[in-house]
Design goal:
By secondary structure, the chain is α+β, with helices and mostly antiparallel strands. 34% of the residues lie in helices and 11% in strands.
Length: 70
């Protein structure tokens, strides 16, 4: 939210935060939770599409895709 210049509450209303899924990414070393947002680690950079999909309320698992993530 800091980098986007919007309030954290506004950002949370836009995206779909699944704490269980984010927790799994965090435990796997893919991201770090920080005040005002999350940060993708260097090792998690290859999985950024997976993290983004987990935050996208419009993403439908199993839906039509044009490319596959790792």
């Amino acid at each position: 939210s800091d980098k986007l210049g919007i309030a954290e509450s506004e950002l949370n209303s836009i995206i779909d935060i699944n704490d269980n899924e984010l927790g799994a990414f965090e435990r796997d070393g893919i991201l770090l939770r920080k005040p005002g947002g999350i940060e993708i680690t260097e090792s998690g950079s290859l999985l950024i599409r997976n993290v983004a999909a987990s935050l996208d309320p419009g993403f439908a698992p199993g839906g039509k895709t044009y490319s596959k993530s790792v």
